[in-house]
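Inputs:
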Amino acid sequence: MQWSRRLDKNMKILVVDDFSTMRRIVRNLLVELGFSNPLIQEADDGESALTMLRGQPFDLVVTDWNMPNMTGIDLLRVIRAETALKGLPVLMVTAENNRDQIIAAAQAGVNGYIVKPFTAVTLKEKLTKIFERIAASGASA
Amino acid sequence: MNAVLPLAVDESLPPELRELLNSPDGPAFEQALDAMVRQREQHLFRALGQLARELHDAVRRLGGELAQEGVPGIVADARQHLQDVLEMSANAANRSIDFAERLRPQADSLAHNAGQLLQWTGGDEPAAVLAREAAEFAGDCRAGLADMVLAQSWQDLTGQRVKKVASFIGTVESSLLELVRLTGALAVGEAPVDVAKVTSQEDADRLLSEFGF
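Outputs:
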């Protein structure tokens, strides 16, 4: 699968969170930032997210940490371990803000980390940074 | 040996202990010591059992008091209440997001129409002034709606805390039952009952009654 190399308004985004309100909030903010509403899909835990990721191409995953069945960090680890998914950008949006957890996410290969509650400006900054870095690594490769 | 020991015996010790320490009979000494230790253990276990029972009574009394005030008080109900809080807060947050989603296209359309109007009029014309005001209002409205949507993330943050409290209540409940089971089993020397089987208030009461509480 070919990942979008830059921040593109027609990206397919998967929002993963066990709280439906939070999924709606993230979706609303993404739409506010100009992303296409019909291209945003939702999953309520890591397991169902994985099924969707294996079934169709996505350009970005925005995931919570603390979820039943499969947590966000476990989802991230599986994504990085699978040949077909390992290049997929993953942004973690979570209330987990202790040092060890942020380090664990970084070591597992997270592309960005946002601590809840956050603002639309923060979301935009992190997304821009993620795709700038990906573009830079793609250019140097 | 006998010549040395009496020197070590403190006058403040109980007479039976002094007698024991002076006794030349080794096995009898150990037996008596064992009996004393066992007696102490029995006291301790009985005291623990009593504590557990008092704690259980206190929890039950609290439940009764809550019930009298119109709030059903048993642990399962407490968990249900927390679940209700989660649902109600989710509904409230969803309603706010509904408003934002409904108003956003209206703000967009107002901004668009104001823009169209400004192509035909301008300067100090009353229509132009109104159109500019409308466009500004539409922009503020959009930004305000985005903030309002974002503010609803309180539901997720408080909800996670509510879930933690619900799981804590479950832990307290099973720890209490485990304590009662352990102290009961030790005090009467019975085989421990599998705590995993305790799932209801009736089970808990039955288990407690088995240990004489």
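Remarks. Chain A has one domain: 13-130. The first helix of chain A runs from residue 20 to 32.
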